């Protein structure tokens, strides 16, 4: 087995592990959303987005993993998404706490943080979709460290 094949297998294993952790966080977020006390609209929206992400990853798992052109890049993107979902889970759980102080003082700050993680989720999903379809032999794709060339 070549070194490249070993690296590809390791990347595939990382992909599967990341997908499982993301699925676990997604379910925990979905359950937490059902009992939030503050920022309900933001949390419900995040819950929907997280379940869409989970559905996309389920689809990705169902694909022939060998069709993923850049597994190391996809694994990196999924790792970043995993970190974001972990942070999202904590924020949604904070919204479960009912307190007068939280309602008046921290709800706005928490709402902003929820919006920020929601945007980060979207950004990383787009990056992941791009990475899953990028091809090292395709000059139209951009690789880390190489800026794309735009023609006027």
UniProtKB/TrEMBL annotation:
Organism in which the protein naturally occurs: Digitaria exilis
Gene Ontology BP annotations: cell surface receptor signaling pathway
Domain Mixed lineage kinase: 20-124
InterPro entries given in the database record: Adaptor_Cbl_N_dom_sf, MLKL-like_MCAfunc, MLKL_N
Pfam families according to UniProt: MLKL_N (PF22215)
Protein's name according to its UniProt entry: Mixed lineage kinase domain-containing protein
UniProt xrefs under CDD domains: MLKL_NTD
């Amino acid at each position: 087995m070549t070194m490249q094949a070993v690296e590809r297998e390791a990347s595939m294993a990382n992909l599967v592990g990341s997908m499982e952790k993301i699925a676990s966080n997604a379910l925990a977020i979905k359950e937490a959303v059902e009992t939030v006390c503050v920022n309900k609209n933001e949390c419900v929206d995040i819950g929907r987005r997280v379940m869409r992400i989970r559905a996309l990853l389920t689809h990705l798992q169902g694909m022939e993993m060998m069709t993923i052109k850049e597994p190391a890049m996809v694994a990196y993107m999924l790792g970043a998404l995993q970190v974001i979902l972990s942070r999202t889970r904590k924020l949604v759980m904070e919204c479960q706490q009912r307190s007068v102080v939280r309602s008046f003082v921290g709800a706005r700050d928490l709402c902003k943080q929820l919006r920020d993680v929601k945007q980060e989720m979207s950004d990383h999903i787009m990056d992941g979709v791009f990475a899953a379809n990028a091809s090292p032999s395709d000059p139209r794709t951009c690789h880390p460290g190489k800026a794309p060339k735009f023609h006027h």
